[in-house]
Design goal:
The complex is a heterodimer of chains A (about 500) and B (about 500). Chain A is mostly helical. Chain A has a domain of about 220 residues. Chain A has a two-stranded antiparallel ribbon. In chain A, helix 13 runs antiparallel to helix 14 and helix 14 packs antiparallel against helix 15. The radius of gyration of chain A is 22 Å and the shape is globular. Chain A starts with a helix and ends with a helix. Chain B is an all-alpha fold and about 500 residues long. Chain B has one domain. Helices cover about 70% and strands about 0% of the residues of chain B. Chain B contains 20 helices and four strands. In chain B, strand 3 and strand 4 form a beta hairpin. The longest helix of chain B is centred in the first third of the chain and has 31 residues. Classes of the chains: A mainly alpha (about 500), B mainly alpha (about 500). At the A-B interface, helix 5, helix 6 and helix 7 of A face helix 17 and helix 18 of B.
Chain lengths: ~500, ~500
């Protein structure tokens, strides 16, 4: 079942390659069909996953490269289940959303998009460290091409920066993965009971000295920190986000960034608890600093997309705070915030893309007063914005509330500082809304703006529905991820107390 | 001599027979199409593959012709790789030579001689056979590099290669002579192992080994013996460059592995340290210099230096396990050798493909290809662009390609060795190697950027691309498939690598 979800997009990519490149409509339909099918295939997972049962469920496990001890092993717990659902939910929306913004080389684009979906799902579902690493690095390749080929003007600079940054993070992780494996192998040589493989369960049994934990944590943490992105490794993000085409930004902000937070939760914390304990204050500091710093930088942006990119950095800083609060509330909040941020920021990028298609600019000075011309658009924009700044009743609030709850238990001072970031967030997001939508129309071109059409409403409606649903009814989601979050925290506590 | 011995060296003999057949039956002076020589060459290599296949896998190593040749799975594995590289080179050369109007039959004969020399190197542990194979290969290459004798660049490259190459051979012979003295008269690599295992490190032996390493270092272009490589690679006909980048390295690393299995019988820290620095220098020089290149061919030339560096990392960290019964170190389970065997395969496939594409895209006048010339090629040549992109990603070591598994194996070996010996310097080398491959990423990425992200220049919109010949498409297609296949299912290789590893050390007297 899981493998079916995982490979469906890749099958779709192959199917697209079989279609003649001139049949644009057919290509779009097939791409949409495959993403939708993946979504429908993944929905039953939600119901099959029993939150009260074993931690990892619906798993599949078989030999892949036995000579190197590598297995094909996938399974979900509450966290990866919801994040995988986020991927499958976002992708059909991205496909319809990109119909207008991608104007050339359609087939190549959708092939890459489907591959990207498959790789992202793979990274969320993998239980084998090699498998995870493989998807983790593979993911960068289609994204690189999406930015580099369909992006804005300095796209090559942005794409290369993105690629080099991410690989700079992940290559040390490769060494750390190898280090863990061979450590296990040398233990396996002494004790035949030990199962020598890259599987997370086997590697989790390793007893590492503090120094070893630190080295490996730095290697893993660097790659996750780049992806999140955490201050000071965030500089690739504004460039990549701004230059990427709309669908690229949506995937990047909506899903790809979550990979970093997920990595911390799934790998860094369970494998290296002692190092995490010691590193937590530093990470706290960096995360809070990042939250405030990025919010301040966002305040002075003149390009809407860049502003939202910085707001991503700021919001993902909160996620890191929640994770490293290392209590059940913080972790739950972090995961919830990741889901919420995926929806809202994805939605914001889609909205910006729609206005960009009409006016071909993203400068604030070019807008103003367009709520009169585009009332439906303005309504959607404002709902999503409010979701993003954590208005009660919308999805952002639940996550932020839990994060602050958790952070306050761990370190009250940090929580106080972090809250300023949220206040600043409300400031720049609401200012954005005001500058774009209200006031008098100053630029002549804005008089001829047409409101969004049915296709665009279809793109936005599910997002907004989810934003409201997750805001008023968080229980179905929290319920699923609660045992998994608690398991991570318990494991960590047990390891630290020893 | 008996028939069994003859059968045993048939993989080496077939190319020679085919080469002789080409020389006897085909006349270069005749004008018009000449389909026979490449056909003979491919079928010769095909026969060689078949005889490898008939022998594969041996259950124990066999010594042929009074210790002159050691027939084991390791050598056969190398021979198979070399055969595939040769077939690829020949198939690509057909079209290339035709376009450059230099369709001489001798070309194929020389390629075959070189191939059989390489195979002989892989199958030898005796110094004499080793030198014989090396010279057979080198002399053929001196001619092949200068094959376009009307172009000054080609001639310059040839002379450069000849001078440095013969100097390297001289060093090697000199070193072997010292080793002969140091091992009190052994003409076989196992002599080194026996002396080393005895714990006596005679200065004569160490000096000799130093010379041998220098001599072989020239062949694989390890720093500081790499100076010749960029010019030679650039000046040589492109298919020949591809052949040199793959075949020569495969054969030379085969010899180096066998050599170091013997050398490491004793803990020779001095040699290991020297090699450590050579490996680091080679990676760094190759990667840094490749960054600055404008010509794609030259970039690949420098990158091949870098790859030799990664392979040397594995050589530095090679670990043996003490064998209870014989007292010798046993290298048969070494992850480093496994890594190298994967790596040369992945690297060979990607390079044959990449140089094949370069030789196809090269301009009429033989001027090299710059990065700018690749701009927007995707529009005109989607298949070739995709293939070139796959090869670059494989060379850069991105997962999903064969190159990643190779990189994984090599650096995995370094990490493993640093743990089992508790030696931080190995870990350091692995970290430095990984950082180097990050540098490498940048220049490999320039190719896809040009192909996909840049628009096609106006003046090229209406240019007509030459037709892609069948043979060329077959080679490129097969390389792409193999690169991806080995990237996702590397297990398939184990039917080759495993038996090869098991016998890597056959020459040690006590392990026979």
């Amino acid at each position: 079942m899981l493998s079916c979800v995982l490979f469906l997009p890749m099958v779709g990519a192959l199917a697209l390659l079989a279609i003649d490149r001139s049949k644009e409509r057919l290509i779009k339909k097939v791409a949409f069909g495959f993403t939708l099918a993946t979504f429908f295939a993944s929905v039953p997972l939600y119901f099959e996953y029993d939150a009260g049962g074993a931690l990892f469920q619906l798993g599949q496990d078989c030999d892949w490269i036995p000579s190197l001890g590598i297995r094909y092993s996938v399974a979900v717990d509450g966290i990866s289940l919801l994040l995988a659902l986020l991927v499958t939910f976002m992708m059909p929306i991205v496909v319809i959303g990109s119909v207008k913004s991608i104007t050339n080389k359609h087939r190549d684009f959708y092939v890459l998009l489907l591959l990207l979906e498959g790789f992202m799902l793979g990274a969320f579902l993998a239980r084998d460290l090699f498998l995870f690493y493989m998807f983790w690095e593979l993911m960068v390749v289609p994204m690189y091409f999406i930015i580099g080929v369909w992006g804005g003007k300095p796209r090559i600079y942005a794409a290369t920066k993105f690629f080099i940054y991410t690989l700079f993070g992940s290559l040390p992780m490769l060494l750390a993965v190898l280090y863990l494996f061979f450590k296990l192998k040398s233990q396996g040589a002494a004790d035949p009971e030990v199962e020598v493989s890259y599987s997370l369960d086997a590697l989790g049994q390793l007893s590492l000295s503090l120094k070893e934990q630190w080295m490996c944590f730095l290697a893993f943490g660097l790659s996750f920190a780049v992806k999140v992105p955490m201050f000071p490794f965030h500089t690739w993000l504004p460039d990549a986000h701004t230059e990427a085409p709309t669908p690229g930004s949506v995937v990047l902000a909506g899903v790809l960034l979550k990979m970093g937070g997920y990595g911390f939760l799934r790998f860094a914390i369970p494998l290296f608890p002692l190092a995490v304990q010691q590193a937590a204050p530093t990470i706290y500091f960096l995360a809070v600093f990042g939250v405030i710093y990025a919010a301040l930088v966002a305040l002075v942006q003149t390009d809407v997309k860049r502003l939202i990119a910085y707001s991503s950095v700021s919001h993902m800083g909160l996620v890191v705070l929640g994770i490293f609060a290392l209590n059940s509330d913080g972790v739950r909040g972090a995961v919830y915030q990741m889901l919420a941020h995926g929806l809202t920021t994805g939605g914001l990028f889609l909205l910006i893309g729609m206005i960009y298609e009409r006016r071909h600019t993203r400068e604030f000075s070019e807008f103003g007063g367009i709520a009169k011309k585009m009332p439906v658009f303005a309504t959607f924009f404002i709902i999503v914005t409010l979701g993003s700044i954590g208005m009660p009743g919308l999805n952002g609030f639940v996550g932020e509330y839990l994060i602050f709850f958790g952070t306050f238990q761990a370190s009250p001072v940090t929580a106080i500082f972090a809250v300023t970031g949220v206040v600043l967030g409300a400031w720049y997001m609401l200012a954005t809304v005001r500058k774009i939508f209200f006031g008098e129309i100053t630029v002549e071109a804005n008089n001829h703006l047409v409101d969004i059409d049915t296709r665009e409403i279809i793109v936005l409606a599910p997002l907004v529905l989810m934003i409201i649903l997750m805001g008023v009814m968080p229980k179905p989601f929290i319920q699923k991820l609660e045992p998994s979050a608690q398991a991570i925290v318990h494991r960590y506590d047990a390891a630290v107390e020893k | 001599m008996n028939w069994n011995e003859i059968f045993g060296i048939m993989p080496v003999l077939w190319p020679i027979l085919a080469a002789l057949a080409i020389l006897v039956t085909c006349d270069s002076r005749k004008h018009g199409p000449k389909p026979l020589p490449p056909l003979l060459a491919v079928s010769g290599m095909g026969m060689s593959l078949i005889s490898c296949w008939k022998l594969w896998p041996l259950d124990k190593p066999r010594e042929l012709f009074h210790h002159a040749i050691l027939l084991d799975n390791f050598g056969l594995y190398l021979a198979i790789l070399i055969s595939f590289c040769t077939i690829g080179t020949v198939m690509i050369s057909v079209d290339y030579l035709k376009r450059r109007e230099k369709n001489l039959t001798e070309f194929y004969a020389l390629v075959l001689f070189a191939a059989s020399g390489m195979m002989l190197m892989g199958l030898s542990t005796s110094f004499i056979t080793l030198l014989f194979g090396l010279e057979m290969m080198s002399i053929a290459f001196y001619v092949l590099v200068g094959f376009f004798r009307e172009t000054p660049r080609s001639v310059e490259a040839s002379i450069k290669y000849f001078l440095t190459g013969s100097f390297a051979s001289g060093l090697l012979i000199f070193g072997l002579a010292f080793v002969y003295g140091g091992t009190s008269g052994s003409l076989d690599l196992s002599g080194i192992g026996n002396v080393q295992a005895g714990g006596l490190s005679s200065p004569l032996l160490v000096l000799g080994l130093g010379f041998v390493i220098a001599g072989l270092g020239f062949k694989i272009a390890a720093a500081p013996f790499h100076m010749w490589l960029p010019d030679v690679y650039e000046g040589a006909p492109t298919p020949v460059t591809g052949f040199m980048a793959t075949g020569v390295k495969i054969a030379a690393f085969g010899v180096l592995i066998r050599l170091f299995c013997q050398v490491y019988q004793a803990e020779s820290e001095a040699l290991r340290d020297t090699l450590w620095w050579i490996a680091l220098g080679t990676m760094a020089v190759g990667n840094v210099a490749a960054l600055a290149q404008e010509s794609v061919k030259r970039m690949l030339a420098y990158s091949s230096i870098a790859h030799a560096g990664y392979l040397l990392v594995a050589l530095v960290v090679m670990q043996g396990i003490p064998n209870e019964t014989s007292g010798y170190l046993d290298f048969r389970d070494s992850g480093a050798i496994q890594g190298i065997l994967y790596y040369i395969l992945a690297y060979g496939i990607a390079n044959i493909g990449a140089f094949g594409i370069l030789s196809f895209l090269e301009k009429e006048n033989g001027k090299g290809l710059n990065f700018d010339d690749l701009q927007g090629l995707k529009v005109k040549q989607p298949f070739i662009s995709m293939a070139l992109c796959v090869f670059m990603l494989s060379l850069a070591g991105i997962p999903g390609t064969a190159g990643f598994i190779g990189k994984f194996g090599v650096f995995g070996a370094a990490v493993e060795a640093s743990q089992s010996r508790a030696d931080q310097s190995f870990m350091l080398l692995a970290v430095l190697g990984i950082l180097n491959s990050l540098v490498g990423l940048y220049y490999y990425l320039r190719v896809p950027v040009q192909l996909y992200a840049k628009p096609l220049p106006e003046d090229k919109k209406h240019s007509v691309m030459p037709p892609r010949p069948m043979a060329f498409r077959m080679v490129i297609g097969a390389s792409v498939v193999a690169t991806l296949w080995l990237g996702f299912g590397p297990e398939i290789m184990n039917f080759g690598v495993e038996p090869a590893m098991r016998m890597v050390q056959g020459a040690l007297t006590s392990l026979r």
